[in-house]
Amino acid sequence: MDSHPNESKASSRIDDRLTSDVVVRLRTQYRDHWVYCHSHILVRQSKYFAERLSDTWPECQILDSRNCVEVDCEENDFDHTLHILRLLYLSSDSSFNADIFHGVRTALGILQAAFKLGCLEVVTACAEYLEAVPWEEDEEEDILKVIPNMGPEVGPVLARLQPVIPSVMIKLFLSAMRFATSSPPASLNDVKRTAQEELDDMLTEDKNAPLLTADNNEIKLEVVQCIKRLHDRLSELVESLQCDSEDSKMLLLSFKSCLSDLSWAFHILSKMGILRDFVHRWTQISFKILKVVQKLSKEKETVLIRVIVLDVAAMVLDAIAYGKVVLPATQRLHMTKVWLPFVREMRSSIDTTSYNDEFGMIDDEMWMLLESLFVSLILTLPSADQAEILTGWWTNPTYPDLSVAFETWCQRSKVARRKREMLAGGDDSA
């Protein structure tokens, strides 16, 4: 059918029976809706209608003395298809304002229908809208289901979801890491916390693969330097807190913040397999940390500091006790003698106060973990050192229960003596 290029869209109105020459039948399972249209508009704006209204289309239906074109659609696409027919009557491209789409899901529905009808201008307008507006997570999933097979016109919509080249991702990670291990003003604490959470997530393998792998030496070297600066800041705070100062309250806040950062940093280093430097530095400063902590009052805020110290210490002890980081026996003994009394005192203190209920920071699982760690750590020590620690424990055999370590020490000692006697007997007979 011939179109009328000299007719303007402005002179024609949708559903104007007097001037229409085409009936568009929108058909769903439950509806057969007639829309009175104009062929010169449909042909100009839609490949689908241009094809069916052409002289080469084999079957051209006549309905109500007009040409008829059927459009089959799903029930949930009906409104979007009807909307497209109205959009074709807008006077110019500039009329495709954002307010005609009424949100991401509506625009996505219109886009699907427009793609089916070959309405390039509408497809482009929908794509430009979707590319420019924010998406909710469920909307993003819908976009990923619909967009990829629609061709280059909608390609820009997916630009924000394209994989970032590794060098750019590394640069972003390290920039965030430097901030996450810094000491910004209190007003930026929430921003810093967000940075730490997302950095952790970038290295985490959950239902998705981690964004970064831990085998990149550039990342490892920079992360180690960032954590080194954290430890240096902790050392400075410990030295300052050992002296009486008018700024002790501010120092304690900084001390608490630094400890929290170290607790987070341990998880990052653990995922990257580079715990050694952290464990060595914590081992070296453990005694001084406890000297500061033991001077603190029993106020709630300082109890929270003790809890964070205990959390970091538990992670370090776990790394040592189970061989994730290898330390010589002298340092393992040092860590046992430093932290065992603190843990015992901490358990006794919390059991006799309401702080544990208020903070909910230390549960039975944590105490069981610490008990298991000390048993394992003690059993890695030379026999004489084990005996020394167990002798002290038997003077007050409360938490942690080291009876398993005592039992193992006794059995080992018997076996060792028997083997020595056998070896000695063998030498005599020789």
From TrEMBL:
Residues 20-89 form the BTB domain. It comes from the Eukaryota. Pathway: Protein modification; protein ubiquitination. This is BTB domain-containing protein. The lineage of its organism: Eukaryota, Viridiplantae, Streptophyta, Embryophyta, Tracheophyta.
